[in-house]
Specification:
Blueprint (H helix, E strand, L loop, with lengths): L9 E7 L5 E7 L2 E7 L10 E2 L6 E8 L5 E7 L4 E6 L7 E2 L1
Antiparallel strand pairs: 1-2, 2-3, 3-4, 5-6, 6-7, 7-8
Length: 95
């Protein structure tokens, strides 16, 4: 699959889930945001902010066997945080 992403994206991470949705995580001013796309021909939804700590970096995400998005990222030097979302990124909880 080839995907063109317009605009500047800080440390982007993208994955496709089992039903063809695309999830893009990137970093803006030390915060992680997520965008979702219903498939290659669908438009990107508006970005949703996942973190507001201003020291988040290096996002990586995937879905587990229960359909939850699992997001890991670096918060400050040497600290890794783990969040999960049971509803495709509408809400997030720390693991």
């Amino acid at each position: 699959m080839a995907l063109q992403i317009g605009g500047p994206h800080g440390r982007p991470h993208i994955f496709e889930d089992a039903v063809g949705q695309l999830f893009l995580f990137d970093v803006r001013e030390g915060n992680i945001r997520m965008r979702r796309k219903g498939g290659l021909t669908s438009p990107w939804e508006k970005p949703r902010w996942v973190t507001n700590e201003e020291n988040s970096d290096y996002p990586w995400a995937d879905k587990d066997s229960r359909g939850r998005i699992i997001l890991s990222y670096q918060q400050g030097p040497g600290q890794v945080k783990l969040l999960h979302s049971p509803d495709d990124g509408h809400s997030w909880e720390e693991v």
